[in-house]
Amino acid sequence: MTSTTPPQPLPIEATERPEVVGLLAAGRLLGMGRTKAYRLAKTGAFPCRVLRIGGRYAVPVRGLRALLDPTNPDGKG
């Protein structure tokens, strides 16, 4: 039997872009491999801000955008 209730739209928060991405994804965007990304994050030399959350690294998207698009210094857009 199928449901007759229409699907509910996702909340606004669920459709927004993420605020952070994983270290590997950020490293790939910057053209580096896993080992180099982790080495730079561990030594504090990653090209943008890296957060340590528990046992994981997270990179704020705003910092990546600013790094990848120097014409947009606030990271928006």
Structure overview:
With 77 residues, the chain is an alpha+beta fold. The chain has a domain at 18-68. It is 38% helix and 14% strand. The chain has helices at residues 12-15, 23-29, 34-43, 61-68; strands at 20-22, 51-53, 56-60. It has a 3-stranded antiparallel β-sheet. A hairpin with a 2-residue loop joins strand 2 (51-53) and strand 3 (56-60). The radius of gyration is 17 Å and the shape is elongated. The termini are far apart.
Question: What would you say about this model in short?
Answer:
By secondary structure, the chain is an alpha+beta fold. The chain has helices at residues 12-15, 23-29, 34-43, 61-68, and strands spanning 20-22, 51-53, 56-60.
Give keywords.
77 residues, alpha+beta, three-stranded antiparallel sheet
Structure annotation, total helices = 4
Q: Main beta sheet, described?
A: 3 strands, antiparallel
Q: How do the strands of the widest beta sheet line up side by side?
A: 1-3-2
Strand content: 5-15%
The helix/strand class is alpha+beta
Distance between the termini: 45 Å
User: How many E-type strands?
Assistant: 3
Task: Provide mean pLDDT, rounded.
Answer: 85
What is the C-alpha radius of gyration, as a whole number of Å? 17 Å
- Give the overall shape: elongated
How would the blueprint of this fold be written?
Blueprint: H1 12-15, E1 20-22, H2 23-29, H3 34-43, E2 51-53, E3 56-60, H4 61-68
Antiparallel strand pairs: 1-3, 2-3
Helix pairs in contact: 2-3
